Amino acid sequence: MQNQSTWSRLRWPIKALIIGIPLVGAIWFASEKGIFDDPGAEPTTTVTTTSNSGNDGENSGNSTSTTTSAEQRSFAYQAPKPVNGTLKGVVEVGASGFNSFVVRMDKDRNYEVVSKDFGESLVYEGLATTEDIRAGLKKYLAKMFDHGVQNKNMHFVISSGAQKEPKTATIVSELKKMGYVVNQVTPEQEGKLALKSVQPPAYVDNSFVADIGSGNTKVSWYEGNTLKAIELPGAKYYEKGTPDEAVAAEVKRGAAAIPKAKSEVCFIIGGVPFELAKEVRQGEERYTVLQDPSFYKSDKAKTKSGLVIYKALQEATGCDTFVFDWDANFTIGFLLGLPV
Fold first, then answer.
1. How far apart are CA 316 and CA 259, in angstroms?
2. pLDDT on residue 303
3. DSSP 3-state assignment of 293?
4. What integer pLDDT is reported at residue 141 of this predicted model?
5. What does the pLDDT read at residue 124?
6. Distance of alpha carbon 141 from alpha carbon 128, whole angstroms
7. According to CATH, where is 3.30.420.150 located in the chain?
8. pTM of the model
9. Of the candidates 240, 251, 232, which has an alpha carbon nearest to the alpha carbon of residue 293?
10. For tag attachment on the chain, is the N or C end more exposed, with fewer CB atoms within 10 Å?
């Protein structure tokens, strides 16, 4: 009898295993590397989770609320960087203080934040005389000029909420005496400007934007090519003695206008969202996914009121992904609308 090779003497089940194991391994490797992915597929919201058991590192001392253990999600989106951009500065005069930004912006309106300051109070903390205000403004602006912003590229915007505060008029008067143009915006304009700064183009069809300010909340979204914006109560409604229940009901009525298709993601900014995001930020990422409103506990009146608004937005829209953008503000939206 002719001698048979080792391979020919093997039974077919054994041969199948020998052939199949490397083949399965090769398919798995290709799948992990994305070889089978469709390069023309539409962008999707990618969220990952990590364990979070409370505050971390440098933010823990600045927090205004406390947290409990939960999984922390991350938002996998990278904003495009500007190419050969110009430095521009903008100061928001808000209902509770000043926010300022120095940004580098290119001809395609791509931008990156070079510096930012939140919550500078100046007159709101007792700089009562016009001399104090003028000196404080000069000191404040000097820090921005140090970054290389030219005087002609410095802009001031008075938020719609701040316009309701009588003390804002003194600040506006001093700025005008210093030779600056002071831009005032309506709540609708503010909502639209917030959307321009925070909503990535890839998410126009499945997201809306919320800006929870002290004086009011602005909510905006696109319907076709039309940009819609509405005004809702702000986080300082408690100062007027308005009940939480009444505010929650008003927010829900307003948010009911947001199309269901736009409620997959909410890009959220504002003072209270800033405080909530600090609690769960994982490092220096630009986008932080907020936890569910029930996750946060606070003894601060403004934060508690902001949580009422946040919860009402969530319940009205069914959205479970609220993404805070550390580098967005409606005033940056204002800059985006200026000639390059």
1. 11
2. 96
3. helix
4. 84
5. 59
6. 19
7. 48-76+187-333
8. 0.74
9. 251
10. N
CA angle at residue 164 from 188 to 304, to 5 degrees? 85
Superfamily for the 48-76+187-333 domain:
Exopolyphosphatase. Domain 2 (3.30.420.150)
Closest CA to 122 of 146, 143, 148, 145: 143
What stretches in the chain show pLDDT beneath 50?
1, 37-43, 49-68
Q: Which amino acid is at 263?
A: S
Run of H or E residues at 305 = helix 301-317
The whole-angstrom separation of Cα 133 and Cα 239 is 25
Tell me what pLDDT residue 312 has: 98
Q: How far apart are CA 12 and CA 145, in angstroms?
A: 79
First to last CA, the chain: 89
CATH ID of 86-184, from 3.40.50.2000, 3.40.50.1010, 3.30.420.40, 3.40.50.720: 3.30.420.40
Please report the pLDDT score of residue 57 as a whole number: 33
* Residue 171, pLDDT score: 82
Query: What are the residue ranges of CATH 3.30.420.40 in the chain?
Result: 86-184
pLDDT of residue 17: 57
Do the beta carbons of residue 291 and residue 67 sit within 8 Å?
yes
Distance CA 159, CA 94 (A): 5
Torsion, Cα of 234, 235, 237, 242 (10° steps): 110
pLDDT at 40: 44
Q: Are 62 and 278 in contact (CB under 8 A)?
A: yes
Q: What is the pLDDT of residue 28?
A: 56
